[in-house]
Design brief:
heterodimer; A: 54 residues; mainly alpha; rod-shaped; B: 518 residues; 3 domains; two-stranded antiparallel sheet; globular
Chain lengths: 54, 518
C-alpha cells in the first residue's frame, strides 16, 4: 500500500463504518426497539399457559 | 400460515441455510491442520501452498457461516420469546458460550491464520491453525449441547414461581448423552463434507490436468481423512440412534414407520410406504433384528410402536393435567404446601398437559376426545422422517464406498489417472450437504410437536407478535440469503477457477524429489 493511497483507504473505512452504523440503526428501529419487543416475562408466560398470573 | 408455522419455517430456512457453511468449516479446519502439519514436518513448500489455497476457500465459507448464524440467535428473542423465557436459564448458557467461542476464539485464530504467515514461526503458525480447528469444533460442541438439551432436557427442573425451567445440575446439561452423541456425529459429518469438497475440487483439477501436484496430494489427504470420517459418521450415528431409542422413542418409531410394537428384536424396514390414515406401512421390506440391535443394543428388548406410544402419551397427558391443575391453583394460593407437593409429584408430565392448549384453554377440563387428539398430535410427520433417514443413511454408506475406493486408488498410486473415479468424485460434491441437511430434518422434524421434548410444545414457545412481522422478515431473509448465496458461489467458483497459482499470486512450489503422498 503506497502512502498516496492511504488517505483514500481512510475515506473508504469511514464511509463503510458510517454505512454500517446507519444500517444497524435502521435494523434496531425497525425490529428491535422496545416498541417491537415481545413481552415474555413470568406474568406473560403464566398468562399464556394458565390463562392468568393469579 | 399462522404465527407458529411462519416462525418454524423461518427458523428452518435459516438453520438449513446456515448449515450449508458450518460442516465445510468444521471439515476444512481439520484438513488445514493436517496439511500444515505435513508442511512443518517435511519442510516441503507445496504443503504450505496447499494449506494457504484451501485456507482461502475456508475463509470465504467461514465468513458466510458467521453471517448466517447470527440471525438465528436473534430469532430466539424476536420469534421465540416465550421459549426464551421458559428455558432461557438452561439454554442461554451454552448458547452464550458458543457465541463467545465463535466470535472471540475462532475469529482471533482466523485472523492469525490468514495474516500471520510471515510474522510467526512455522511451529507457532501450526499451533494457530490447530487452535482454529479446535475452536471451531468447540463452538459446535456448545451449540449441540444446547440442541441436545432440547432433545433430552436433563439437569433442569420446573420452577412454579418463575414459570420456567431452571438448571438443577449443570454437569448433567454439559454431559447430556444425547448432546455428546450428536456432537461427535455432527462434527464427523462435517469432516466428510470437508473431505468430499477437497476430493471433488482436486478431481476437477486432475480431470483438466491443472495443478496436478497440489491436487494429487490434496486427494490423498482427503481420501484417508474422508474414509476415517465416513466410517465414524456411521458408527457415531448408531450411537445417536441408540440415545434416541432411549429418550425419544416416538422419533425412532416414526423414523421406522413402526406403528405396532414388534416382538424383540425388531426388524429394520429398508423400504415401505407409510400410510398416515390407516397407521400401516405398505410394501415393507424388512431386515430381521437390525432395529432392535440399533435402538436397544440387545436381542430381547422391544422397540415400542407408534400406537403404543400414543397410548402412553394419553396416560402422561392425564397425569400432566393433575400437575396443571395444581399449578393453576398454586398461582392463587402460593403458600399451599399440599398443592406444591401435588405439582412436584406430577410435574414430569406437565408438558404433556400443555399439548391440550391447542384444543382448549382450561386444560384441566379436557374431554376424552380432546385428550385423544392431543395424544395423536405427538406423532411427527412419519413419511418425511422415514424417507429422510433412509436417504441420509444411504448417502452415509455411499461416502464409505467413495472414500474406500479413493484410499485404495491412492495406495495403488492410481488416484490421479483413474478418470472414471475422478468424474464420480467431482459429481459427488453436493451429496454430503444433502446428507447433512437430511440429518437435521430427522433430528428437528422428528422432535415435533415439542420444542423441548416432553416439556414445552412448539406452539407455546412462539412470540405474541403479528404474523406479518415474521412473514416480512422471512421474505427479507430469503432475499438477503439468496444474494449471499450468489456472492458465495461466485467467490468460490472464482478462486477454484483461478486455482492455487492465481489465488496465492505465485506458482505453487513443486518438489523435485517424490514425497510420500505423491
Amino acid at each position: 500500500m503506497t502512502s498516496a493511497r492511504r488517505p483514500l483507504l481512510w475515506r473508504e473505512i469511514t464511509i463503510l463504518l458510517a454505512v454500517k452504523v446507519v444500517a444497524l440503526s435502521c435494523l434496531y428501529f425497525l425490529f428491535f426497539d422496545p416498541s417491537h419487543r415481545p413481552l415474555a416475562d413470568t406474568s406473560a408466560v403464566s398468562a399464556r399457559i394458565l390463562g392468568s398470573d393469579r | 400460515m399462522d404465527i407458529v408455522e411462519l416462525s418454524r419455517l423461518q427458523f428452518a430456512v435459516t438453520a438449513l441455510y446456515h448449515f450449508l457453511f458450518v460442516p465445510l468449516t468444521l471439515g476444512l479446519s481439520i484438513l488445514l491442520g493436517i496439511m500444515e502439519t505435513v508442511y512443518v514436518m517435511t519442510g516441503r513448500e507445496i504443503w504450505r501452498d496447499m494449506t494457504k489455497f484451501w485456507g482461502a476457500l475456508f475463509g470465504i465459507n467461514f465468513a458466510m457461516g458467521v453471517a448466517t448464524g447470527i440471525t438465528m440467535e436473534f430469532q430466539f428473542g424476536t420469534n421465540w420469546a416465550y421459549y426464551s423465557h421458559y428455558v432461557g436459564d438452561v439454554f442461554g448458557a451454552p448458547l452464550a458460550i458458543e457465541g463467545l467461542m465463535a466470535f472471540f476464539l475462532e475469529a482471533t485464530f482466523v485472523g492469525l491464520f490468514f495474516f500471520a504467515w510471515n510474522k510467526l514461526s512455522k511451529i507457532s503458525h501450526l499451533v494457530v491453525t490447530w487452535a482454529l480447528a479446535i475452536a471451531t469444533n468447540m463452538s459446535a460442541l456448545w451449540i449441540l449441547i444446547a440442541n441436545g438439551w432440547m432433545q433430552f432436557p436433563a439437569g433442569a427442573r420446573f420452577n412454579a414461581d418463575t414459570m420456567r425451567m431452571e438448571v438443577s445440575n449443570f454437569m448433567e446439561v454439559l454431559f447430556n448423552p444425547v448432546a455428546q452423541a450428536k456432537f461427535v456425529h455432527t462434527v464427523s459429518a462435517g469432516y466428510v463434507v470437508g473431505a468430499v469438497f477437497v476430493l471433488a475440487i482436486s478431481a476437477y483439477y486432475l480431470l483438466r490436468g491443472r495443478h496436478v501436484e497440489l491436487a494429487k496430494r490434496s486427494m490423498t489427504v482427503a481420501a484417508s481423512f474422508g474414509l476415517a470420517s465416513a466410517l465414524s459418521v456411521v458408527v457415531l450415528g448408531d450411537e445417536s440412534g441408540y440415545t434416541a431409542g432411549l429418550n425419544q422413542k416416538m422419533k425412532i418409531a416414526a423414523v421406522e414407520a413402526m406403528w405396532i410394537t414388534q416382538p424383540a428384536p425388531a426388524s429394520f424396514t429398508i423400504f415401505g410406504i407409510p400410510d398416515l390414515k390407516t397407521h400401516t406401512t405398505k410394501y415393507e421390506v424388512k431386515v430381521p433384528w437390525v432395529l432392535g440391535l440399533i435402538a436397544t443394543r440387545s436381542a430381547d428388548k422391544a422397540v415400542p410402536g407408534i400406537n403404543d406410544l400414543v397410548d402412553l402419551a394419553k396416560a402422561r397427558i392425564m397425569n400432566g393435567m393433575v400437575a396443571y391443575d395444581a399449578l393453576a391453583k398454586l398461582k392463587a394460593d402460593r403458600g399451599n404446601a399440599e398443592l406444591r407437593k401435588t405439582l412436584d409429584a406430577h410435574v414430569a408430565d406437565l408438558g404433556y398437559a400443555l399439548l391440550l392448549k391447542r384444543f382448549r384453554p382450561d386444560v384441566q377440563n379436557a374431554t376424552p376426545a380432546e385428550i385423544d387428539a392431543a395424544a395423536a398430535s405427538t406423532i411427527p410427520d412419519v413419511p418425511v422422517l422415514f424417507w429422510s433417514f433412509r436417504f441420509m443413511v444411504g448417502l452415509g454408506f455411499t461416502f464409505i464406498a467413495l472414500f474406500g475406493v479413493a484410499f485404495w486408488l491412492s495406495a495403488q498410486r492410481r488416484l490421479g489417472s483413474h478418470r472414471l473415479f475422478l468424474k464420480i468424485a467431482f459429481w459427488s460434491l453436493p451429496l454430503p450437504w444433502i446428507a447433512a441437511e437430511l440429518g437435521w430434518i430427522v433430528a428437528e422434524y422428528g422432535r415435533q410437536p415439542w420444542v423441548i421434548e416432553g416439556v414445552l410444545p412448539t406452539a407455546l414457545g412462539v412470540s405474541s407478535t403479528a404474523p406479518g412481522n415474521v412473514l416480512f422478515s422471512l421474505l427479507g431473509f430469503a432475499l438477503f440469503y439468496s444474494a449471499l448465496l450468489v456472492a458465495d458461489v461466485y467467490l468460490l467458483i472464482k478462486y477454484i477457477r483461478l486455482g492455487p497459482d492465481g489465488t496465492l499470486g505465485h506458482a505453487v512450489a513443486v518438489p523435485f524429489a517424490r514425497d510420500p503422498a505423491e
